[in-house]
Give the backbone structure.
Amino acid sequence: MIKKNVIIDNIKTLIYALIIAIILRSLLIQPFYIPSSSMESNLLVGDRLFVTKYSYGYSKHSFPFSPPIFSGRIFDNSPNRGDIVVFKTPSDNRTDYIKRLIGLPGDTIQFIDGNLYINNNQVLRTLINDKQILYCGSQKISVSTHQEKLPNNKSYIVSYRNDVSFQNSDKYFVPENYYFFLGDNRDCSKDSRFLSEVGYVHKDNLVGKAQLLFFSSNSREGSIFQIWKWPNIIRYDRFFKSLN
C-alpha cells in the first residue's frame, strides 16, 4: 500500500510539474532554437534564446499546438518597429519564424536600388564592413554589413550580398492588423517579401518578443552532446546576451 501511494504521489508531482511548465511556457517565457541563417549576424544557427510571451498579449498561438480556445488576442499590446519577433507563418499557422518587424499596419514598404523605403522615405544605412563572410544555409557568402536606422531611431546590423542582392520591388501595402517582417541577412531570408510563402503576418500570429540569448553552440561543427568538442563549438561570448 505504501509503495502504491508513493507511485501515485510521484505521478501527481509529474503532472503538477507538467502543468506548471505549460503555464510558464504559454504565458511567460519560452525558449527557442535558431535553425537558419536568415538573421545573421545578429542571430546565429545554434543560438538559444528566450522569448517573452506576454509582450504582445496572447492568442491561440501562445499555447502548444495552437488550440482554438478563443479568437483574437487578449491583453493585446502592439509591437514596436524593429522588434525581433517570433510568429507563426501564415501559410500553415504552425511553423515558427523569427524575423525583424519593419512594417506596421498602414505602412508602405519598397526596395529601390537595394535601399529600403518606409512610407516613401529611405531608411538610413551606414556601411560598417564591405567584406564580411556570413552563411546562407550551408553556403558561405560575401556580404556588406550596415547599421540600419528605422524611423523610430531603432538601430541594428543588417547584411546584403556583394554578388547578387535584392534590388527593386513593387510597393508592399501593409493591411490593417497585419505586419511586415524582414530577415537581417537580407538576401538569405524568406520573409514578408515572399507573399506566397510568408507575406503579411496577422497580429494573431505573433508568438512573442525575442529578448535574451542565453546559450549558443556552433552546430555546424558538432553536437552539444559531444562534450569533447565543447571548447570549439560553445560560443561563450554569446551567453546571456540581450537582443537588439
Notes: DSSP finds two helices and 15 strands in the chain. The longest strand covers residues 124-136. The radius of gyration is 20 Å.
